[in-house]
């Protein structure tokens, strides 16, 4: 599959999940995919295309590669028994009070994203395959910016703790039906044959102090790309964490175990239709 599934902007604008709306409105070509034609409802009008490009955000300029010496890490760069929580394509270090929420594709049952909640903020993580010879964040950054503007939002490119980032204001619908704008930060890190996308919401999207702990979680993340052949931008599969099978502990043992849990599972698994 491509990095972002195709969906008309009109179907997603103003939804309760603006990050999903932006992600699903960005169209990227899969390996071997044919360009859109009039038969698919998209007409290649040169004049219309020129006008759209004139209004679009400027193309991102390639910048110096982000220094990954402090993470995120490739699985080849860390020990296998480092006590990180295994989620298939990602391994995470726990934090006190951390909550995890998983997004599951309804049609296939695949886990497509994990969202980490901590201290009133959250970061959504997804990992994708990337070409061996080059990264993809420069190109994807531009596509995200175009999608945000198309949905009535605003986007600004900046240098951040995780390299080149996008600080966006995404349109959301309030309970009384009005449109507000939610600050959202998109960060991307290119690794060896993989790309990790991190989307910050809550205070961590615009407050440097509030973002530090979640940024540390991202930096300590390990990406497990695998050796199998994958198309560029294909989602690296995730898995729900395994629950160890063991005898039920006594009350005093259970209390002690609760104090040592590095993760608290979130209250829900989101199904993506």
Task: Describe this entry's structure for a reader.
Strands 7-8-9-10-6-5-4-12 form an eight-stranded mixed β-sheet. It has 273 residues and is α+β, with helices and mostly antiparallel strands. The two termini are 15 Å apart. It has a domain at 68-241 and 264-272: Protein Transport Mog1p, Chain A (3-Layer(aba) Sandwich), CATH 3.40.1000. It is globular, with a radius of gyration of 20 Å. The longest helix has 14 residues, at 137-150. The protein has helices at 9-12, 18-25, 46-55, 137-150, 208-219, 251-260; strands at residues 73-74, 85-86, 90-92, 99-105, 111-118, 121-129, 154-160, 163-173, 179-191, 194-201, 222-223, 264-272.
Q: Which band does the percent of strand residues land in?
A: 25-35%
Give the uncertain stretches in residue-range form. Answer: 1-15, 25-63, 252-273
What fold name goes in the CATH topology slot of the domain at 68-241 and 264-272? Protein Transport Mog1p, Chain A
User: What structural class results from the helix and strand content?
Assistant: alpha+beta
Query: What distance separates the N and C termini?
Result: 15 Å
Query: What is the 3D form?
Result: globular
Determine the number of helices (DSSP H or I, runs of at least 4 residues). Answer: 6
Tally of strands: 12
Name the strands of the widest sheet in spatial order: 7-8-9-10-6-5-4-12
Strand count, sense and barrel status of the largest sheet are: 8 strands, mixed
Helix and strand element order: HHHEEEEEEHEEEEHEHE
